[in-house]
Amino acid sequence: MASRNNDRRARIEQMRRAEQARERRGRIITIAVSGVVVAGLVGFGVFVLNKESEKKEQKVAEAKAPVTGEKTWDAKKLGRKHVTKAVSYPMKPPVGGDHNQVWMNCNGDVYKEPIADMNAVHSLEHGAVWVTYNDKAPAADVTKLSERVKKTTYSLMSPVKDQAGAIMLSAWGKQVTVDSADDPRVSQFFTKYVQGAQTPEPGAACTGGLGAQ
């Protein structure tokens, strides 16, 4: 009888040790897996931060670098009065000068029909980039540019049939003609001049004006 009790206690003890061993293995596996997950998350976080840092550095570089082929006008010589009579601008599209007191909405607005220069110039004064194109611009480029404008506050787009270049970008005192929607100068111009240093009235509204879409 005593022998059977001893055997029973031995089996129970053996089972208890086996259960403890399984629990230890489970804890070790859990800790190991958690460590891998944490390491992965940390690595991913570092990767994301590095990518964001690279993007910021790229934007800073684009903002500092000159835009190849860009034309510049002396901002001090561009009038800024609000007028009601028609203004004859020396460049097409205009990049500044006296203008109508009401701006064109430039909150990513894409206009399918020509807009008034005097209202668009007021938008440039608020820090907008104005994308324009004529009949020579490929339809695919017009579509790509319109998609970019729609995603960009302080920008607008419209056709200008009698402009010299097929695709042109204008900001206050700045203008460039590009070869296509994929021309790297498009991105550079947006980065440099959307609410850029050239803006006479930074932070002024691009909504509440004329031509809500």
Automatic annotation (TrEMBL):
This is DUF3105 domain-containing protein. The keyword Transmembrane helix applies. It holds the Pfam family DUF3105. The chain crosses the membrane at residues 26-49. Keywords: Membrane, Transmembrane, Transmembrane helix.
